[in-house]
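Hey Z.,

So I finally got round to the pyridoxal-5'-phosphate thing we talked about over coffee. Here's the setup:
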Amino acid sequence: MPYRPLPHAAKPMKENTKLIHTGRNPSANGACVNVPVHRASTILYPDVQTYLARFDGERRFNEVLYGATGTQNSRALASAVNELEGGAGTVVTASGLSACTLAIAAVVKAGDHILITDSVYGPTRRFCTEVLARFGVEAEFYDPAAGNNIAALCRANTSLIFLEAPGSLTFEMQDIAAITNVARDRNILVAMDNTWATPIFYKPLQHGVDISIQAGTKYVAGHSDLVIGLITAADSQRFQQIADYAMTIGDVAGPDDCFMALRGLRTMSLRLRAQYDAALRVAGWLAQQPQVKKVLFPPLPDDPGHALWQAQFSGGASLFGLCLEDSSLAAAERMINQLEHFKIGSSWGGYESLAAVNLLPLTRDVVPWTDGEVLLRLHIGLEDSDDLIEDLSAGLARI
Ligand SMILES: Cc1ncc(COP(=O)(O)O)c(C=O)c1O
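And the result:
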């Protein structure tokens, strides 16, 4: 049964219009606005020949053939995300972390050397050092400020550069254009975890990145109620390589989560823009408070990554780091334990504000982060920013 989303409109559409129309086709779905949830493990076939030919050719990438290789809901979500990313194909995975690890594992082989940003999301780092190492792939971490200098780290067997910008917890920006130029000259693939900016504010595939990854758990889902991963490839061979690998290892997202993620995607642009505006206001205010040493948020003019952010991204997330003058755990506890609107938790991108505390030192190979006892991270939700500032103001006063 081929899955057919709405045919592309003849007229070009603005992105917000596209986000409303992509990945659904009411006339093929009982006139429902949204693709209904198709719960399926078994798919039935009319005869033996059709059954035996079910995975032939490109069928396995776009038809619904077996529950664990994708349902109408994962196909619909993939088609919408692919349109937003401007890719050749999107693979939906069980979590944001599995999107990162699967994208890497699908394209490397024993004997390869890969370069990973030192500020990569911690569990992705762990996969590289603990799992890839066992399979004969050497992962080397690079300074996120490397830019062109990454050329000096490239070897004859370097097959992949994995970047994430801004970095997890420390929010360093990267010169993505410089890195992709170095990679292109040497036939090295580039993958990017773009969960922070999302394709609303930065489209990696338009800037020389081969594989764009999002933890759909965050802003795509947007309501803190599911985990899902999204991998989009710039060319169709790469997409098929990754999709085949996902099928081989059995990484799949359930239809309910795909349905919810696609529902979230419809309003992502609105939510993200509102949350980003509020984050700019809250982060700017925090940067002026005497108890605050620095705010790690590239959209702020004083951030060391501001120029790179401004040159490459058209907006940002509502997630930033916070270093207090008193960086003891006790001070963080006095500030955070009694916050009213900021709850304590780590998975971000939902509609609610969050505070997270990270104990130092962070795991870093190249750029140590050892200053003090803790590093804080705030996520700004859709509450009124006046209330959030009042809450934080009382928190800072408690220090
Ligand atoms: C930058 C980044 N990438 C990937 C992930 C993993 O996403 P998930 O929680 O869906 O596994 C996270 C989760 O916090 C993240 O912050």
